[in-house]
């Protein structure tokens, strides 16, 4: 049996190189950028006004107050999207709207709230300093700058910037397709009515949701019976996918044929069993070049092993800079049972008191109890060597889900 760290390292070592595709800007949200995006021109492209008001020569307004205002002659009005037709000379002003380019000769804008009158003349009630209310050319971005770079996970702010740079398409990494095969004679699909001895195929749906949340594309391959032939056929149906997940049939039961079939197909088995709880009987290998995960069948084990191994693998394959969940240290508010030997990943609730983050388990941790997954907002990571019970106040690491 190998350690968690070794298992994860070996799995990540098999992550395929990223592949790229061009997508429309509005489809790029959440995707990983795969190119340098350069600014072709300065943004803003010219000095412009930050307010509605009057473009003036600051020197003309020196000393202006409501008691001793200064009056200037208004030459014209410039809306955003237009240019002034003439420069501002001494004693002159141009009425100007937010975003419009600064007229030549003017070096400040007095906002309309600090003026009086309209038409031919304007009364300035407040002195302006040089560059007041002026947004200088290139203050946001300079022509030639690489503004966005490879590996960036695109958020709305990035897409807004890309739009500002005139990009309607972006080169991003491809989302891998992930085949999901459930195994088990006892399984029926959730829209069938189960007879007494049957149970519903939960894992296909929980795993599909995890695949989607990780940014990849789930392909549900249905249920395979617990025979080597059925499992082989199910695997073959999934070899068009970039990654294959098989749930169930990977333990030591009389009808657990996933591991022997993985062993036999292309000799692909890399390892089987990891010193963790839950999800010990994890199998991983390459089948026909397709990275294949044999996940334990218990719904919680299958979800936790996805979280610990498959999610970082998919994120690496998509070129994310950060492939792991963020972690936080928190103090236990309830004692926790732990035996040395395996690394535990308990489903946990993250809370906070006046001294900082605290946590407790979600309650019963049975690997068939989906409530533990449903209530969890973190996985509590307890190292192999720790021997419990761990007392209240003990500090543990949480992986935030
Ligand atoms: P296995 O790993 O095949 O021995 O399965 C362990 C437990 O998980 C058994 O109780 C199975 O019935 C259950 N199980 C396996 N696959 C699924 C599934 N797709 N949905 C829900 N439960 C499952
Ligand atoms: Mg089974």
What's the helix and strand layout?
Blueprint: H1 4-12, E1 20-24, E2 37-38, E3 48-49, E4 53-56, E5 70-78, E6 92-96, E7 108-111, E8 115-116, E9 121-124, E10 134-135, E11 146-148, H2 156-164, E12 169-173, E13 177-183, E14 187-188, E15 199-200, H3 203-213, E16 217-224, H4 228-238, E17 243-247, H5 258-264, E18 269-272, E19 276-277, E20 283-287, E21 290-295, H6 299-317, E22 327-332, E23 343-353, E24 356-361, H7 370-374, E25 378-382, E26 395-400
Parallel strand pairs: 5-6, 13-16, 13-17, 14-15, 17-21, 19-23, 22-24
Antiparallel strand pairs: 1-12, 2-11, 3-10, 4-6, 4-7, 5-9, 8-9, 18-20, 20-21, 22-26, 23-24, 23-25, 25-26
Helix pairs in contact: 1-6, 3-6
As a percent range, the share of helical residues equals 10-25%
Proper CATH architecture of the largest domain: 3-Layer(aba) Sandwich
Question: Would you give the CATH topology of the largest domain?
Answer: Molybdenum Cofactor Biosythetic Enzyme, Chain A
Overall tally of structural domains: 4
Q: Which ions and ligands are bound to the chains?
A: adenosine monophosphate, magnesium ion
Quantity of strands, as a count: 26
CATH homolog superfamily of the largest domain = MoaB/Mog-like domain
Mean pLDDT: 96
Strand content: 25-35%
* Uncertain segments: none
For the record, the CATH class of the largest domain is Alpha Beta
């Amino acid at each position: 049996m190998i350690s968690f760290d070794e298992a994860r390292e070996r799995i990540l070592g098999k992550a395929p190189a990223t592949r790229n595709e061009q997508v429309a800007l509005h489809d790029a949200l959440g995707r990983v950028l795969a190119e340098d995006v350069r600014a072709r021109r300065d943004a803003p492209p010219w000095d412009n006004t930050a307010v509605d008001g009057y473009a003036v020569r600051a020197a003309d307004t020196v000393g202006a107050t409501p008691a001793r205002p200064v009056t200037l002659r208004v030459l014209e009005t410039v809306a955003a999207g237009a240019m002034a037709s003439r420069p501002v000379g001494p004693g002159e002003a141009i009425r100007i709207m937010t975003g419009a380019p600064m007229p030549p000769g003017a070096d400040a804008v007095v906002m309309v709230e600090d003026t009086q009158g309209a038409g031919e003349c304007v009364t300035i009630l407040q002195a302006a300093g040089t560059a007041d209310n002026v947004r200088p050319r290139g203050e946001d971005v300079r022509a030639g700058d690489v503004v966005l770079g490879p590996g960036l996970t695109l958020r709305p702010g990035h897409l807004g910037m890309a739009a500002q740079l005139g990009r309607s398409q972006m080169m991003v990494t491809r989302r891998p397709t992930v085949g999901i095969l459930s195994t088990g004679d006892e399984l029926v699909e959730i829209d069938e009515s189960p007879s007494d001895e049957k149970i519903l195929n939960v894992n296909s749906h929980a795993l599909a949701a995890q695949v989607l949340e990780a940014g990849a594309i789930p392909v549900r391959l249905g249920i395979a019976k617990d025979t080597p032939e059925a499992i082989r056929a199910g695997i073959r149906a999934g070899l068009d996918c970039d990654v294959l997940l098989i749930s169930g049939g990977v333990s030591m039961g009389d009808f657990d044929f996933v591991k022997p079939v993985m062993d036999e197909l292309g000799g692909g088995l890399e390892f089987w069993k990891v010193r963790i709880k839950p999800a010990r009987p994890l199998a991983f290998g390459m089948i026909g070049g397709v990275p294949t995960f044999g996940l334990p069948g218990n719904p919680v084990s299958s979800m936790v092993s996805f979280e610990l191994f498959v999610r970082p693998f998919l994120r690496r394959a998509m070129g994310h800079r950060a492939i792991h969940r963020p972690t936080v240290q928190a103090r236990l508010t309830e004692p926790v049972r732990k035996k040395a030997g395996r690394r535990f990943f308990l489903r946990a609730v993250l809370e906070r008191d006046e001294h900082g983050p605290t946590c407790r388990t979600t309650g019963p941790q049975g690997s068939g109890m989906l409530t533990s997954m449903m209530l969890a907002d973190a996985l509590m990571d307890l190292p192999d060597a720790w021997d419990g019970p761990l007392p209240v106040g003990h500090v543990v690491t949480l992986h935030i889900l």
